[in-house]
């Protein structure tokens, strides 16, 4: 069973929609990097049982993304905010070269600070 | 049964996670503004059955927001983007008054355009 790195991202976004058991299995497998056999030994079920449970939970995460598109939208917002930060830096540099307006300088700092705080959420 | 206007917003975000039947009921009730009795007549079940189904679907929507917080996050991003647009407008006005830099003017247009496109998604 190949590990799907995209699952880690989906787990961040949709993990709270899974059952505690499902979250536990995926956490062992993806975040703590345990093998199927190690997880089976930890939770006291068969390796095949763990495998099936993980597969099912993965399918649910993928289906939630297909329905809600939260990760896709989040990545678009991230990309836009990074571009806004870049534009604000260039305004700031241009202002230092030519206009030397204190107000423009303050406003570019404000734009960068808002864009950064939205990226970090 | 009081109509909860917040449900319309939650329906936009999480409607795809409900069953087609649940979406149909909530659509009749919230978007098309039919009464419980009218919906009951349309779908051929009792008024109480419609009422219960709507209540259950509403609870599911509210629970999804409690788990994923998509609407809360979306509103925060909207607010930040509106403030970025305002800052860009003020940079543009200040630049027209003092610096007259073509590059700063272009960059403020770019920031506003990115922020607007992210708001509209």
Task: Determine the most extensive contact between two protein chains.
Answer: A-B, 35 and 35 residues
Mean pLDDT of chain A: 91
CATH classification class of the largest domain in chain A:
Mainly Alpha
Estimate nothing, just give the exact number of structural domains of chain A.
Answer: 2
What percent strand of chain A?
A: under 5%
Query: Which descriptor suits the 3D outline of chain A?
Result: elongated
Low-confidence stretches of chain A: none
N-to-C order of helices and strands of chain A:
HHHHHH
Query: What is the quaternary state of this protein?
Result: homodimer
Structural class of chain A: mainly alpha
Examine the coordinates and then state which fold CATH places here, giving the name of the CATH topology of the largest domain in chain A: Arc Repressor Mutant, subunit A
Biggest β-sheet strands, sense, barrel of chain A:
none
Radius of gyration of chain A: 22 Å
Could you tell me the number of beta strands of chain A?
A: 0
Total helices of chain A: the number is: 6
* Terminal-residue CA separation of chain A: 32 Å
What is the CATH homology-level superfamily of the largest domain in chain A? Winged helix-like DNA-binding domain superfamily/Winged helix DNA-binding domain
Report the helical percentage of chain A: over 70%
CATH architecture of the largest domain in chain A: Orthogonal Bundle
């Amino acid at each position: 069973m190949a590990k799907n790195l995209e699952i880690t991202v989906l787990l961040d976004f949709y993990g709270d929609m899974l059952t505690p058991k499902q979250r536990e299995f995926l956490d062992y497998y993806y975040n703590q990097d345990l093998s199927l056999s190690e997880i089976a030994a930890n939770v006291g079920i068969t390796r095949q049982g763990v495998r099936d449970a993980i597969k099912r939970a993965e399918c649910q995460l993928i289906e939630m993304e297909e329905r809600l598109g939260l990760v896709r939208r989040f990545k678009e917002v991230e990309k836009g905010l990074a571009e806004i930060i870049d534009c604000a830096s260039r305004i700031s540099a241009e202002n230092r070269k030519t206009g030397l307006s204190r107000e423009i300088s303050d406003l570019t700092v404000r734009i960068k600070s808002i864009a950064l705080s939205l990226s970090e959420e």
